[in-house]
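Thread amino acids onto this structure.
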């Protein structure tokens, strides 16, 4: 391992949890089985991605509540919940409840910004307040404050036979330190640091100062840590798409390579008015992928990852990919699995 790379301390994975509309239970069960497998393989964390009005997990907090009852050690995260769809007070209650059920294993990741396709959905989501909603960082700040125990009401005490608290219940004291912000720009990285959050950086960044993905991502990591109270010890997790092929069949390898080939054109230049730049998918043997990661400027400065599973594969593909990550790629990056207790 090159001396400039940090040994990988925490290894996680991310899944979108797709399902067949005609049989949604099977897809959700597959996601839970993948999380259980991750715990058995020694992964440190499992993350689910949020999808509204699609055939993917629309309620990650509910799915993770189920996962808390089928696992005992692995940390459970969301990457990410778009807060434009959420009421911060109600979400704070749900997150705290799941954290209590998990024994303090929840890592909620959130993002700011208006809901996707807002003009098409605002009549159902916010029929009376669509033009007045704040989708900026203020919405994230409300969630932070509520989770960390700031007052949600100006009343506490007893009315009749009922006792009321002025803060979110249940209160889970450690949860406020395990909130993550998913950002793709320097501004987002700076804001997350200034507000003491952890930082999720993925396979998509905004090309502001460069068109080199690794250089851009590295600038975000450094900007975040420069403004975080913990400095270089502030937690950053990287979420690239990684597909090791060590134990894959010839058919699986061909499918994985074709998947990456079809997605490669979007990685060649920034896209759209926002100049979003995508990272190439990493497909190959664990040795090949480890070599590419050690050469990645941003990877060399982090020690946590949540590798993203491709969206459209089959359950048996995810089993193979996760097994190879845990048994081959992780150790090649300096990581050691955690034994299940």
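Threaded sequence (341 positions):
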């Amino acid at each position: 391992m090159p001396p400039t790379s940090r040994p990988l301390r925490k290894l996680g994975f991310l899944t979108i949890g797709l399902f067949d509309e005609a049989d949604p239970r099977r897809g959700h069960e597959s996601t839970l089985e993948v999380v259980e497998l991750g715990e058995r393989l020694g992964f440190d964390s499992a993350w689910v991605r949020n999808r509204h009005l699609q055939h993917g997990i629309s309620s990650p907090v509910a799915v993770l509540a189920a996962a808390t009852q089928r696992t005992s050690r692995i940390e459970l995260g969301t990457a990410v919940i778009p807060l434009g769809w959420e009421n911060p007070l109600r979400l704070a209650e749900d997150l705290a409840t799941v954290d209590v059920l998990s024994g303090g294993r929840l890592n909620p990741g959130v993002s700011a910004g208006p809901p996707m396709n807002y003009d098409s959905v605002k009549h159902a989501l916010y029929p009376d307040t669509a033009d007045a909603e704040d989708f900026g960082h203020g919405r994230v700040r409300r969630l932070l404050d509520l989770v960390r125990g700031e007052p949600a009401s100006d009343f506490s005490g007893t009315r009749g036979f009922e006792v009321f608290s002025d803060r979110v219940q249940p209160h889970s004291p450690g949860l406020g330190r395990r909130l993550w912000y998913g950002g793709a720009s320097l501004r987002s990285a700076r804001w997350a640091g200034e507000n003491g959050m952890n930082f999720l950086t993925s396979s998509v960044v905004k090309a502001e100062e460069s068109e080199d993905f690794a250089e851009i991502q590295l600038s975000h990591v450094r900007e975040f840590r420069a403004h975080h109270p913990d400095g270089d010890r502030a937690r950053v997790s990287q979420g690239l798409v990684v597909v090791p092929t060590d134990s894959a069949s010839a058919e699986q390898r061909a499918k994985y390579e074709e998947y990456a080939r079809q997605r490669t054109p979007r990685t060649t230049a920034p896209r759209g008015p926002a100049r979003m730049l995508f990272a190439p998918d990493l497909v190959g043997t664990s040795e090949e992928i480890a070599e590419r990661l050690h050469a990645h400027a941003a990877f060399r400065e982090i020690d946590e990852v949540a590798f993203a599973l491709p969206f459209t594969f089959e359950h048996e593909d995810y089993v193979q990919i996760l097994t190879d990550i845990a048994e081959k790629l992780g150790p090649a990056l300096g990581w050691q699995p955690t034994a299940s207790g």
